[in-house]
Predict the structure.
Amino acid sequence: MITLKSNDGETFDIDETVAVELQIIKHMMEVGCSGGEIPLPNVAGKILAKLIEYCNKHVESGKAEEQAASDDLKAYDADFVNVDQATLFDIILAANYLDIKSLLDLTCQTVADMVKGKTPEEIRRIFCIKNDFTPEEEEEVRRENQWAFE
Amino acid sequence: MAYSFPEEVLEHVFSFIHTDKDRNSISVVCKSWYAVERWSRRRIFVGNCYAVSPVIVTRRFPELRSVALKGKPHFADFNLVPEGWGGDVFPWIATMARAYPMLEELRLKRMVVTDESLELISRSFKNFKVLVLSSCEGFSTDGLAAIAANCRNLRELDLRESEVDDLSGHWLTHFPDSCTSLVSLNISCLGSEVSFSALERLVGRCPNLRTLRLNRAVPLERLPNLLRRAPQLVELGTGAYSAEPRPEVFSSLEGAFGSCKELKSLSGFWDVVPDYLPSIYSICSGITSLNLSYATIQSPDLIKLVTQCPNLQRLWVLDYIEDSGLEALAAHCKDLQELRVFPSEPYGVEPNVALTEQGLVSVSEGCPKLHSVLYFCRQMTNAALVSIAKNRPNMTRFRLCIIEPQTPDYQTMEPLDVGFGAIVEHCKELRRLSLSGLLTDRMFDYIGTHAKKLEMLSVAFAGDSDLGLHHVLFGCESLRKLEIRDCPFGDKALLANAAKLETMRSLWMSSCSVSYGACKLLGQKMPRLNVEVIDERGPLDSRPESCSVEKLYIYRSVAGPRRDMPQFVSTMDEDSELRLS
């Protein structure tokens, strides 16, 4: 068993077979530093719980080989990312920090799908991004995009 | 609350975003997104090679793997662009050789590609995989030999419709024995015989070969051996499909085809002998694409073949198919999406086949998924066009070529305004339209009013006045490419809609009534447009302002006027007025 501790003091015991899904933990295990509680200052308990749930599910499904298990996993994944934007972004950051490849792929794909087909204005609104181009700079990029690369 | 993802996360998100439009959108969101986007962009499409320069491209996108470029305007296909006009890819290759050592794919259309360029490609890009040369020219089989010899990981070599200086078929032997990576090989445009044993060995050692388009010089007797070495083929272009009728050749062919369970697309069929057509019947039920545009067989044989292909989605065929063949097509091929009918005798004065507007009407009635049409014929009526429009509101590409210019509705002798008007009114998703027949300004009014999604329009021998051009420029909101020949369009509409030209990729006008003075004025007014006058009659300086120019090609560019113009091309920029006064 490996014990992880979130930045707000919650602890989680996870099986080694699940812990290796978190590449950062896997490396620690390989070099023998995984005893005791592993503190994760960048991850809140609420988010760590979700990540562990995801990893548990994927490790379980990995053992089953039928198509039904694979379809079930797809449905699970679709449901998993069906959360509010703030939570989704927290999950991405945590998955990136802990290096959980399949979760990072899933969440980044989800964000990419939010971006596809949208105008720059819409994208800025969705992600609360400030446009730091001057009007002239923006005009120049748009022109180059449309005239040269479309 | 603003989220700033670390760059590697942003890059990961962007790795799932592929279309040009989306990549362009994300680059404008903010400066950090622009930066991450430009470093992570791997493929670009440049619709007009002169709209941008190689330096601008390599400066903005340091890590490209795949580049697509288009050169000459579309009317080059009809020999309207003089030899030496431009579109040489060499400056691009030279710049990219330094900037993109990891380049993998190059797709070029209507560009001049020399052997020097091909040799440079073959030496500069260690991981080069895909070379597609579509309607290109300027190279010989020596250049192909360099590609074959040096590109160790070559997956695709596709020479579709290029003009190659075919010195010999020997170039194919330059593929080393270690080359096993080919997925697609299209040499259908080559004239001379390639070494058959080299070809057979090459095909045999490439287990992933999916597309093989042979040239005419590969005789029918050689085909079974090739097919037996590549039973996994999905797309096949045969060579000449003729031989003396011999039962053993036939059964060998039939057997070889029978073992190709994955075949979906067939082409080639030069000189086809009808006796040999049944050799492909066993695989017809799987065929989705059939290109018979070189098959000079008559309607009964075409009908026999086509009715065996219930899953046909695309058919390219000569007008030998006639109305009766198109009726059979409409009855049997319910999945048909694209139809192209080419003229067997385009320069003949009298019709040589029984192909009329009725054939197209039948197909439009019987094939609910038909959305892309190219149809050469000799007669048309407004009633037929209205039927077609009402039958197929899902039409996206409609190119009608009535062979004789300015042909009216043969029943009413009226212009075809109403018919084409119905097309643009009912087919709300129409993106591409080519007009022919007798057409007045009224037709253009219909286009400007209804064709809101139209992106490309080709016009020849049509219209009465500048009003026609004005309707199109003013009304067609999505217009990207406009090509016009032999129409009475002049200065007024062009100058009045000058700003519109910056929203389009290009405008081509030849044998119209645009004056030299108007071109100069346009060039001055619109400094970001390249207004290029093509005139082979001699220097422009001494021309009066009112003189009509031969040809005009106008396009927007972020790279300024080009520096590689031949002496018969002049750019009308802000300085030209000063220089010439």
User: Anything to note?
Assistant: The two ends of chain B are 61 Å apart (CA to CA). The mean pLDDT of chain B is 95. Residues 90 and 117 of chain B are 5 Å apart (CA to CA).
